[in-house]
Each structure stands twice: as C-alpha cells, then as structure tokens.
Specification:
By secondary structure, the protein is mainly alpha-helical.
Length: 80
C-alpha cells in the first residue's frame, strides 16, 4: 500500500494526493502490522479463564519483577 508504488504512494498515477503517504523508514507499516498481529492474537486467545469471576483486586505477584520489567521497557523506549 505504500511500498513498491502502492495506492498510498502518491504521484500522478495515484490520486490520493500529489505527495503521497510519507512514511519515515517504514515505521507506519511496521507498527500497523505489529498492532494488527497483536490484536488478532489477543482476540484469538481470549481472556484468561477465571480472571473476571471474582471481585477481589488483582495484586502483582512479584514487586521486584514488576519494577525490573518497567525499567527494561523504559530503557528500550528511551535507549532505542
């Protein structure tokens, strides 16, 4: 759709607009494919059985692992 003269690439042959869809290094397509894949996976797996049956709060199992995961995500977000 944008790579290889797709319908969003623009130009005279494609009448979306003269410039076309500007995608820096393919990030739009990469994130769109990842998001659609994650959505399909989440819908096909569904919710965990018994997760929403009780009304008691859901406590984290390991606070150090929660903090470690937060720092790993933070480092990946800002470091990359």
């Amino acid at each position: 759709w944008t790579w290889g003269y797709g319908w969003l690439s623009g130009g005279d042959d494609y009448q979306i607009n003269p410039t076309g869809f500007m995608d820096f290094a393919g990030s739009g397509i990469v994130h769109m494919c990842g998001g659609v894949g994650a959505l399909v996976g989440a819908v096909s797996v569904g919710p965990r059985s018994g997760r929403f049956d009780s009304v008691e709060p859901f406590d984290p199992h390991s606070l150090p692992l929660l903090v470690l995961g937060t720092f790993i995500l933070w480092f990946g977000w800002y470091g990359f």
